Amino acid sequence: MPVANLHILTGHPRENLKQWIRETSSALSDILAAPKDRLEVWVTEIDPDLWGISGDPASEVLAHTPRREAEMPFIKMILMEGRTVEQFRQIIVQLNEITARLMDVDPERIRIHIEHTHPDRWGIGGIPASIRRAAELAARNSNGA
Predict the structure, then answer these.
(1) What CATH number does the domain located at 3-142 have?
(2) From residue 104, how far is each of 62, 68, 121 by CA, in Å?
(3) Is the pLDDT confidence value at 145 over 60?
(4) DSSP string of 61-75?
(5) What span, in angstroms and rounded, lies between the C-alpha atoms of 118 and 61?
(6) Phi and psi for 7 in degrees, rounded to 5?
(7) How far apart are CA 20 and CA 16, in angstroms?
(8) How many Cα atoms sit within 13 Å of 17 on the Cβ side?
(9) pLDDT of 134 strictly over 90
(10) H helices then E strands: how many in the chain?
């Protein structure tokens, strides 16, 4: 069920963006012990005219500031309740490293937001996850995952 939306300015090499998806998916799968077929990771590229940096459109800021120093990638994730603080910390560390390396951006500029949602507030095929995956979640919790 974990989902991650990776927001970035347009203009990065397509292969880097695809690798960003691969490495983010692998990190989430490893940290959360979640099967990859349950993960959704996508990139949203934003037009620099439509992304504000310090009150100005990024296109104007990038005219005088190196992209590495100006761009602020934003990662927004939604995870089902039950994850540990340690898992959150690992996600933040690993996704920050992956993003900085692949997007060639200052690690201090990266922002990551993780939302927790209750299984009653997450629908899968029109059915709350609390109902649809009750047995699966119970089995995972009993295994300490």
Answers:
(1) 3.30.429.10
(2) 14, 6, 36
(3) no
(4) HTTTS-HHHH---EE
(5) 40
(6) -100, 135
(7) 6
(8) 15
(9) no
(10) 6, 8
